[in-house]
């Protein structure tokens, strides 16, 4: 039991370092392959009905988790449990994490804004979020990037590590599958309002623990812990998303900026509450600050998840040993009276 948890720790650390070193490949990414499979399933199952959307979500997310579990079992049988667990955990962690690519894309937009090239910044913005870039000026683009960095720190880094600590390789894969499905069909367009309902609700549930851990770590790691905690408490529940709210509010307070407000998605205008109302408007230079905060949060999330799994594993192992007679009170031998 303890060896399994140690294997997860080693594999998760290796996968995290792999993401730092390489980021996402331009071609052949496993998540992209999953997206193509989910799109093919959608073509066959789509109906303007919640039930068909729930079936699509169950098939895609459940199939991904089951496939990861079967692969783990098969590789263990060939190469041995410990080596297989380390290798598969490292590969899965690298595949599901997106922190390095997130920071790279955000900084590319920040560099364009610093050079006064708003058109290039608009062209790159869809790599991070689904807003209509033509409706945004430089300040609104910077705000959109900081908000995307905050939200995706939870979705693409912390949440995955949390579920990896809970469920190992299947947990890592299942979380990323759910998050990808939400990005594909979970938005409120006419096509997906009903069909994507299940994916969106499942993503809310799966993202809940990671979002709270992200907010807590941003509070601890940010330059203004009191401001982050104050904004989280005051504004976190005002956001329409139960998970984006705490994350964006804590980032806003930590960085001393205002997030939220009017947003435009494909011609649809949303007026969201302001998060971090005591802060100043976002500037282009805040993008790099947000990326640095995101990286600190990601590193702390790795340490937290690995430590939690090791501690829980040790407790369960000790309790199991006590119940089976392998442990006992200090100073007593088995069979003594």
Task: Give structural notes.
By secondary structure, the protein is mostly helical. The chain is 71% helix and 4% strand. The chain contains eleven helices and two strands. The protein has helices at 2-22, 30-45, 50-79, 81-96, 99-114, 118-124, 138-185, 197-221, 225-235, 244-255, 286-323, and strands spanning 259-265, 268-275. The protein has a two-stranded antiparallel ribbon with strand order 1-2. A hairpin with a 2-residue loop joins β1 and β2 (268-275). The radius of gyration is 22 Å and the shape is globular. The two termini are 30 Å apart. The relative contact order is 0.13.
Over all CA atoms, what is the radius of gyration? 22 Å
N to C succession of SSEs? HHHHHHHHHHEEH
Structure classification: mainly alpha
CA(first)-CA(last) distance: 30 Å
* Approximate shape: globular
How many strand units?
2
The major β-sheet equals:
2 strands, antiparallel
Provide the helix percentage.
Answer: over 70%
Q: Give the low-confidence spans.
A: 328-337
- What number is the mean pLDDT? 91
Please tally the helical runs, counting DSSP H or I stretches of 4 or more residues. 11
Strand order of the largest sheet: 1-2
Strand content: under 5%
Break the fold down into its secondary structure elements and pairings.
Layout: H1 2-22, H2 30-45, H3 50-79, H4 81-96, H5 99-114, H6 118-124, H7 138-185, H8 197-221, H9 225-235, H10 244-255, E1 259-265, E2 268-275, H11 286-323
Antiparallel strand pairs: 1-2
Helix pairs in contact: 1-4, 1-11, 2-3, 2-7, 3-4, 3-7, 4-7, 5-6, 5-7, 5-11, 7-8, 7-10, 7-11, 8-9, 8-10, 8-11, 9-10
